[in-house]
Amino acid sequence: MSFKRRSLAITCAITSSIVLAGISGTAAAQSSYVSGSSGLLSSSELHPETPAPLDAPKNIIYMIGDGMGYNHVSATNLFETGQTMHQVEGEPGSVTPVEGGTPVQAFEGAEWTQLAQSTFQDGNSYDPERAWADHNYVNENFTDSAAAGTAMATGVKTTNGMIGINPANEPAKNTSEYAIEKGKAAGVVSSVPFNHATPAAWAAHNSNRNDLHAMAEEMINSDLNVIMGAGHPFFDNNGNPITEADEDYMQASQYERLASGETDFTFVEEDADFEALANGQVESDKYFGLAQVEDPLQHDRDGDSVTPYDVPLNDVVDLSTMSKAALNVLNQDEDGFHIMIEGGAIDWAGHANDMARDIEEVQEFNKAVETVIEWVETNSSWDETLVIVTADHETGYMTGPNDDPNWSAMTGAAGIVPNHGWHSGNHINQLVPVFARGAGVSDIVAAADQVDPIRGNYIDNIEIANLTFNKWW
Length: 473
Ligand SMILES: [Zn+2]
Known about the structure:
The chain is α/β, with parallel strands linked by helices. The chain has helices at 3-21, 23-31, 43-46, 70-81, 128-131, 145-154, 175-181, 197-201, 212-220, 252-259, 271-278, 319-330, 346-351, 355-379, 441-447, 463-472; strands at residues 59-65, 88-89, 96-97, 113-118, 185-193, 226-230, 266-268, 287-290, 337-343, 385-390, 394-395, 398-399, 421-422, 427-428, 432-438, 450-452, 456-460. The protein has one domain (3-472): 3-Layer(aba) Sandwich (Alkaline Phosphatase, subunit A), CATH 3.40.720.10. The strands form four sheets. An eleven-stranded mixed beta sheet has the order 7-8-6-5-9-1-10-15-4-17-16, with helices on both faces. Bound molecules: zinc ion (ZN). Zinc ion binds at residues 67, 145, 347, 351, 395, 427.
């Protein structure tokens, strides 16, 4: 145990007593929490395998595959094993789930609760009946990652383009800030630039998601304990160093301040530094990790992929290593933590309708989930930690090969890019999957009081944040 780790524990003990002093306020907030209307189904009615009710989570690990709709999960499963779940088929108004298929990913297994989530932004809605009666219904009025991230991070729906700002243009508190208020640690990790919409939603407030230098500045000056992602001004998309700064995400001067130790963060950027943290060599309670690549870790490297990995990967840190590194830093806080981990480039592959790289990105995200599961079982437990695996929206409208106006199932075999179709170069207003395990899951199940005829019970994208604010912490 390092000296800094000791001093952190002392700080947390002091903060805990302050939090305890405010416990009556927390109780009042809990009693005002209303989980929904009369249509509530009990957890055993929803999923017989749902774990027994557990207490509020001490640690929340919120994992988001950006753009990872049901079919993105299915396509990757098909590529890995030839098995698939979550498929649908039929004519408008008579769509049915395709029977069969066995779990492929750990988070599809019996220990996990499976629900769905609506993703729409402020002023819009999701109508289950219309969604399955008109193939193109979901192609309109879809959220962007800024509004979806803000909803999931702050519990407030907002206008597309806004980060951590409500529709009245006021800052909305996110669950990272709330964790820190409660004496916990907080962090964000992404496989795309650190100040892209999803991580920024848990770390910044700006009415314009493209105001990237201002959000970088806000994040550099924030109280977060961990910020890790791409967006390096001195590397290109193949992970090669460049001499003239590319300031798309971060100014050269901001990088220099981080790298020279002029901020509160301990700065790391080399693969070996991330690996050391992942191996437990943690020497500070506050890390900024900037992967040595410009845009996403892998998605924008040169070459056109026909099948996954036919173009060699960049030699740069992966999402799994960053996730484990971040968890080791945050776990120094004895009061617990909140972390958002994003597989951000699933969305980029969806926009490009690029199935090979979509599968690569989902696999990278799934590997990070496996790493997180192993970390929880080694360093924590499901009694105190909640892991959520979900998406902010679907991207690309990935479907089976014979869609429109009907729905069709994707088909394929292990090692082969599945037979599929795309119906958008943008996002859609479709439900996305939610897989959850650990403390607090029974509360999420109770909040899933809306029912989709195909996907079953679903939550709205503000509900987990509102459980965090009003019930758990
Ligand atoms: Zn997108």
